[in-house]
Amino acid sequence: MTTPEVSGKGPLFFETLNVRQEGAVLFVEISAPPMNLLGPALVRDLVSLIQLTEANDAYQVLVFKSADPDYFISHVDVTRIRENRDAAAKLNGDASIGQLLRHLSLSRLITIAQIEGRVRGVGSEFILACDIRFAARESAIFGQFEAAFGVIPGAGGAQHLVRLMGRARALEVMLSAEDYDADLAERYGWINRALPANTLDHFVGSLAHRIARFPAAGHAVVKQRVNAIALAPAEDIRRDSDLFLEGTQSAEFQERTQAAMKRGFQTRSAEMNLARMVGDLDKHSTNQADHDA
Amino acid sequence: MTTPEVSGKGPLFFETLNVRQEGAVLFVEISAPPMNLLGPALVRDLVSLIQLTEANDAYQVLVFKSADPDYFISHVDVTRIRENRDAAAKLNGDASIGQLLRHLSLSRLITIAQIEGRVRGVGSEFILACDIRFAARESAIFGQFEAAFGVIPGAGGAQHLVRLMGRARALEVMLSAEDYDADLAERYGWINRALPANTLDHFVGSLAHRIARFPAAGHAVVKQRVNAIALAPAEDIRRDSDLFLEGTQSAEFQERTQAAMKRGFQTRSAEMNLARMVGDLDKHSTNQADHDA
Amino acid sequence: MTTPEVSGKGPLFFETLNVRQEGAVLFVEISAPPMNLLGPALVRDLVSLIQLTEANDAYQVLVFKSADPDYFISHVDVTRIRENRDAAAKLNGDASIGQLLRHLSLSRLITIAQIEGRVRGVGSEFILACDIRFAARESAIFGQFEAAFGVIPGAGGAQHLVRLMGRARALEVMLSAEDYDADLAERYGWINRALPANTLDHFVGSLAHRIARFPAAGHAVVKQRVNAIALAPAEDIRRDSDLFLEGTQSAEFQERTQAAMKRGFQTRSAEMNLARMVGDLDKHSTNQADHDA
After folding, report:
1. Nearest Cα to A188, choosing from A198, A178, A196?
2. SS3 assignment for C257-272
3. Which residues have C-beta within 8 Å of that of residue B252, sequence separation ≥ 6?
4. pLDDT at B283
5. Which residue has the higher pLDDT, B115 or A290?
6. Which pTM value belongs to this model?
7. A286, B118, B183, C235: least surrounded by Cβ within 10 Å?
8. A182 touches chain B (CB under 8 A)
């Protein structure tokens, strides 16, 4: 991808994002090796991206995709939670990723997530904050697994999931901390649709350009009215964020995180099957035979 | 269809509706040639129909269908928006189609939409205001395409869609202004179910009679409790109606409408593929090659 | 099933429930012959079960299943409605099954319904109050049929259904009083998923143990935040309960119930096809030929 020269505004440069402009559509590829963890560099880049594109009417639609075929956004870097919050505060003064994502949902920009690979934890919350999301049937994997560590999703996951899929499916997704493939994610309403991987690029690109050709006034009024009904209030996002932060300070969270680290948490290969790993962290399991079966 | 003699109340005559009574079920066929646009005659007839049937306990269930196999209700006649509002005001004093439709949702009457052909714009809003809706898998096509002209749906479409399918799918449907077939409409929750066209008549007829045999007291209390949870407040319907009207007065709306008229907007043949037409209205497209591909 | 000795707390004995403990998971089998009607004995046992298991941290997850392959919970015993309410009042002082079920939804315990056979009326409301629910594709049958008797579901059914499946599908389910198989129940969001019967035991057991291995603090905060969004307020549950009770005192309800009793209502064999029976109660049907077709 080449970095575009935006007319009269200078080029967009980011450490963790590759951007390519086509008309009023900006394609944004997330590239934070080795596995697209959400750390301070990616948060800073997202803040800058939002500020620069919102301020320039040349942009109408942002399409988010990943440079890593296995990981879209893997999850938060658990060693950088505080730094992430400080970096997020640059956008609105609100030190929470949840508020950063809520800003994106409220933006005049239309955001589309094109999902290949794993999208878990704050990765799931990122795509849930986008306006529209399509996933590759063969490769996309979804998880909202914070409860495996004894905490709630920190950036709005619970708020979005329950509104999209209802109480029972949202509870299942969060309490099970399981991986969900794209077809099941579609049936549950987590994503708009699962599509064959080889059609995804063309489908999303065409849709993005189609939307970009329609009047910006329509985008704005539609989003405003939809958000008034379906977007969680700021205080609920803040409350979830506080509860998450509180939970991460518990001994139980620390112990589970350390146990996970010993099994390769936050490494590419071990997280290919994260659902199995987090199901195995409790050494005092009362029924080891059963869950190993 | 014959016009029934309602016991002691005189026959029901309408300009744009063919009605047939079977017990407590009234089958109402929309017939406003050449393509079932919503204009003042159809609005006047809907107002009369609602008033007459609500006032007569002989009626429990209304089934709406279309006399035109290609168009259920195509959309509003954009040249008659003011007249439509004035005609709608005869029902409650509220000059908006959205309030007319909300009245139908609140009615003691049970309404079932049996959908064949295209149902777009206010047509979609009409079926969304019905209590229950089934569509022919082979022929039904759904569109909520107002954003292609820079405006919000004017009669409650945004309110219904976001509550039925969640934020992301509702945004996709409205921002894309695309056509959706019956199977996808079912997956998104736009309709109750898509059924084979050759079973639809029997299925809907049987259901209507089944419901009509149950006590009216049950109908009333179930609708009252469901509406208390799921029906948009009157002020939100009014607000959407005002925003729509405001939008239609913009230069951009006028230009897009004129461009559409040149391409056959509001004619049968051109609207067979309306989604493509509205995707093509912007002559200044930044990526003509892409969307023509 | 054997009755477990709970460490230091004595065994759990119930008249209508068989329980089996595996680690922090309690499997609870409903066994109220001849057809698992909800009567005072089952209500008393549910109250005791909830009190005993909530008070003992050894329990994290309850799995509800049925000892009867044809009936999970058939529906309320209509001859014992008052007694049921009195028995339910033992839990919170609130004399309604709806409040008993709401207590379960608010509990720190995670509840999973494993559904085989028929689950209608208050049976449907019971599984809707559970946190998560899976059903056997081959045998599970769902019905929320109170409107056939002119009343609203009395224990929260309307509240849950409309939030899970939206206005039109919830109205269809209640107004039609029809039976729904597991696949359609999944498509409508009534249950999390329909699964092959021969995999259900293993799937639900594994999930229950998996959740039980995760920290209780996570269960609690996730349920608390989800319930804040998706659980009906107590006053709405009470209101539905009052409207139901009022309705059951009408002459129409009494007549329909007597007509149903003559056709075998509340007997195993006749209720195998309850949907057909309740569709036939109105002797004055205006279109007998049609619904017999």
Report:
1. A178
2. HHHHHHCCCCCCCHHH
3. A215, A217, B149, B150
4. 57
5. B115
6. 0.95
7. C235
8. no
- Say yes or no: B209 contacts chain A, CB-CB below 8 A: no
Tokens representing C137 are 């594709």
The pLDDT assigned to B11 comes to 65
* Residue A19 phi, psi dihedral angles, 5° rounding: -120, 150
Residues A87 and A49: beta-carbon distance below 8 Å: no
pLDDT in tens, B225-266: 999 999 999 999 999 999 999 999 999 999 999 999 999 999
Longest Cα–Cα distance of chain A, Å, equals 65
> How wide is the angle at C-alpha C246 spanned by C-alphas C244 and C249, nearest 5°?
110
Which pLDDT tens digit goes with each residue over C162-197? 999 999 999 999 999 999 999 999 999 999 999 999
End-to-end CA distance of chain C: 46
The answer to whether the beta carbons of residues C177 and B214 sit under 8 Å apart is: yes
Q: Which residues of C touch B212 (CB under 8 A)?
A: 286
Cis ω before B40 (30° cut-off from 0): no
Structure token pair of residue B69: 């196999």
Q: Which DSSP state fits C2?
A: P
Measured in whole angstroms, the distance separating CA A74 from the mean position of its chain's CA atoms is 9
User: What's the gap in Å between the CA of A196 and the closest CA on chain B?
Assistant: 16
CB atoms within 10 A of CB A29: 18
Q: Which residues pair with residue A120 across a beta bridge?
A: A143
Question: How wide is the angle at C-alpha C30 spanned by C-alphas C12 and C102, nearest 5°?
Answer: 85
Residues of chain C found within 8 Å of residue A148, distances taken between Cβ atoms: 214, 218
- Give burial (CB, 10 Å; 0-12/13-18/19+) of B13: exposed
d(CA C206, CA C132): 14
Rounded Cα gap, residues A72 and C193, in angstroms:
27
- Cα separation, A232 vs A239, in Å, equals 11
Concatenated DSSP letters for A129-196? HSSEEEEETTT-EEE--GGGGT---SSSHHHHHHHHHHHHHHHHHHHH---EEHHHHHHHTSSSEEE-
From residue A138, how far is each of A29, A31, A34 by CA, in Å?
A: 19, 21, 22
**Residue type present at position C184:** L
Distance CA A260, CA A135 (A): 28
Helix (H, G, I), strand (E, B) or coil at B4: coil
Q: Nearest-CA distance from A256 to chain B in Å? A: 34
Sheet holding B141-143, edge to edge: B71-73, B118-120, B141-143, B180-181
Q: Which residues contact C110 (CB under 8 A, 6 or more apart)?
A: A171, A175, C60, C61, C62, C131, C132, C208, C211, C212, C219, C223
Q: What is the 3-state secondary structure (H, E, C) of A20-70?
A: EEECCEEEEEECCCCCCCECHHHHHHHHHHHHHHHCCCCCCEEEEEECCCC
Strand spans (E) along chain C: 5-6, 10-11, 17-22, 25-30, 61-66, 71-73, 110-115, 118-120, 132-136, 141-143, 180-181, 193-195
Q: Alpha helices of chain B — where are they, by DSSP H?
A: 40-54, 81-92, 97-106, 122-129, 157-176, 182-188, 197-213, 216-230, 234-248, 251-262, 274-278, 288-292
Look at B162 and A211 and tell me if their CB atoms are within 8 Å.
Answer: no
> Encoding tokens for residue A67?
């440079």
- Upstream peptide bond of C34 is cis (omega within 30 degrees of 0): yes
Note the maximum CA span of chain B: 65
- Among candidates C152, C243, C282 on the partner chain, residue whose Cβ is nearest the Cβ of B213: C282
State pLDDT tens for residues C115-147: 999 999 999 999 999 999 999 999 999 999 999
| Among the partner residues A281, A286, A291, nearest to C24 by beta-carbon distance | A286
CA distance A235 to A253: 24
Is residue B34 reached through a cis peptide bond, with omega within 30 degrees of 0 on the bond before it? yes
CA atoms within 13 A on the CB side of A235: 2
Q: Contacts of residue B225 in chain C, CB cutoff 8 Å?
A: 152, 158-159, 239-240, 243
Q: Which residues contact A8 (CB under 8 A, 6 or more apart)?
A: none
